[in-house]
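Model the whole thing, not chain by chain.
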Amino acid sequence: MSEKILLVDGHSIINRAFYGVTDLTNSEGLHTNAIYGFLNTLFKVLEEEKPDYLTVAFDVKAPTFRHQMYDAYKGTRKPMPAELHEQVPVLKDVLHAMGIETMEKAGLEADDLLGTVARRSEARGMEVTVLSGDRDLLQLATEHIRIRLPKTKGGVTETENYNTQDVIDKYQVAPLQIIELKALMGDSADNIPGVPGIGEKTATNLIVQYGNIENAYAHVEEIKPNRAKNALQEHYDMAVMSKALATINTDCDYDYDWDKAKLGNIYTEAAYALIKRLEFKNMLSRFRVDAPANEKIEKIFQMVEDFGEADQVLTKAAAVPRLAFAVHQEEGQVLALSLTLSEKETYVIPVEGFVTADWLLGRLGEAFAHVPEITTLKLKEALKCLSAHGVTIEKERQGAFLDAEIAAYLLNPLKDSYTCEELAKEYVSLTIPSRVELFGKDKLTKALEEKAEAFRIYGGYASYILYQSMPTLLAELHETGMEDLYREMELPLVFTLFGMEQEGIRVDAQALKTYGEELAVRIGELETKIYEEAGETFNINSPKQLGVILFDKMGLKGGKKTKTGYSTSAEVLEKLAPECPLVADILEYRQLAKLKSTYADGLAAYIEPDGRIHTTFQQTITATGRLSSVEPNLQNIPIRMELGRQIRKVFIPREGCVLVDADYSQIELRVLAHMSGDANLIHAYRGAQDIHRLTASQVFHIPFDEVTDLQRRNAKAVNFGIVYGISSFGLSQDLSISRKEAQEYIQKYFETYPKIKEFLDSCVEEAKEKGYARTMFGRRRPMPELKSSNFMQRSFGERVAMNAPIQGTAADIIKIAMNRVDRRLKAEGLKSRLLLQVHDELLIEAYTEELDKVEQILSEEMQGAAELAVPLEIDMKQGKNWYEAH
DNA sequence: GGCATCACG
DNA sequence: ACGTACGTGATGCCT
């Protein structure tokens, strides 16, 4: 096979990158976006082409032969913006550090160098690829010279590839005739004058017919559109000169040395250092310096494609003291299984032939019966996959499972994701190749089929890293006092949540549809009315357009509140013009539009064939330890406004069941009372019916029965404020009072409950000293903000330090309750099941005959989840839908 | 993909 | 003086 050479038009690619990549700056203040884009494009093409030789050509700032030929050519090069100009020498440094040859010569443009080397390489029998952003280069295309033009389409960079025929297909002319076209059409970017009045169409017609400009001129009398004929006659000299300007010189006087261009290992240590300084973090792994360590590890990863061998591996798996596994799936299909049985045994077993998904997971399930410690990532997802293939985990075996993601989350709950790659770096001190690096943007299925070797590496690390990181994760959990939290609360919760998600909640699709249709009618009416009142139609959903109507056209006085313009939030609009019918209609429209899009239409799309909605509870998202619910979010179903609340009527129990809803009464305040140990508050909450009223009576020194509604409302706001990490500003905002008044409320509150203040202060103090806040059950929230010199950030940190222990402890308590409720329902042989958790609320689908037992279990386990100095009270109701039950 | 808005605890 | 309440997720607009 002939050798391949890749020639890169440095100037055009870096320009393209500069304008295509969002501005980036490293911490030294150097702009880096163009370099980043250039390297990304280069890597992509290198991976596709795998050339033997590589050279990048640059322009030199010096007059070329074109300047001598044509005066106006001077100064034609658009001056580079300074932000781009400064990046060019740095890019060259990076390329040189990678051992990549660059070429430039005074008096020559990059095009000419590329053309010259391309032709010479072709003459030596090489396959040539020229990478450029400039279509002029198409004139170089031949059977053996391919021009690649990068093109960004919807964020994905693809390249258009041109050999001779591709040029003809697209432009109807041969590659060399591209010059003729350009000479006729001109090119303002390159200041090639062309022939005025001749555009792409005419130029193409002329060249297709006459072959070149000279011949067209020879037949100028025949030329059909008079406009073209006159133009060519008048500007023929110009066209000839333009042709010379547009012609790439393929025979430059340049001493090119192929040996120097020979491509070696570009991922050098020197390049690593530069990439690190440029802060291209996702590129860094390509340049990893611990490549030797990686290679040693990767060598042991074994691809197992033979059925017998796979069988042996899985038999062996059943006998090890611990293992790690990863199921690779895509679009519901199991593609492969990764298994690490010891430091030296890692297997990647693709699903193929006799090795079916059912067989593979079935055999894995058999092994699970015997292995004392089983590690994976995203255990809940694995359970789902196993269950879909008929594998269930016995209750007694659940304790054997570890989830590395959850362990990493407990150690640092602030991260966005917990990937194998990050675990490798943090807990194994190893930089592993990223998925993008191995497969590019390919799907897993495609990668397995076409890049088996890369898949072996990817799959191998997937379980190897879990195996290697777990001991460290456990050790750190132990050291930080979170091992119990992990083993006794979070891991069992995985199984509880798995059950809830599998169960799903029944939804009356017809009722939901009707609800949506009713909304649509009213929305339509409001729309018409709003357009009438505004005197024109506009997009009511666009805050920008709405702002123009309200503040510019109608002249309502609204302060500019957001970064982008006027704020049109409900808060602003309500204050703005409570009397204005337009504003009132917009508010109602907004409310209905929200209900329709997010809830009526939104939820309908999630009803599965079983007639139920199966949300996903995320266990590793929040900073405080709460759960979150996605696809769809069932933790924010409307309740505060009656119309929205109606939607809860579509959540119904299955036949023979009712919904039972139990929610903790003011759990966070009770947690606060307990954690602070404030005798007054504890005493108050022990017997109180109405906590906010009692707070008001104590804070304002009024008999309980004489507390006014306003006083109660104020006390309630203070109670909330305390939980959020009180600030006089926040409270004043909430109550629409002055800051001073707010400050007085807070002061009085703290006088009444002195230990609360002590406790909150101690939370901040401890967080400052240790760098993290802690819940009653040892859950940590790191708080880097507290060290900030920025007042805003530090204040935020202080509020978080007060809130996290309270919100987090409440989250811990309900997690305990969930596990206990789940366990008891099963232990007592009941069919009723937990369906949802909404932070302080649990929803159960209870068989009517089990109702009494279910209520007893809920009440005992929720109230008994923690021993606090105050009772943990719940409100419990049942109903034929969620509306009634809550 | 960021921003504004709004739904919940 | 600084300029905010704590924690989430979904939708629609717009660059």
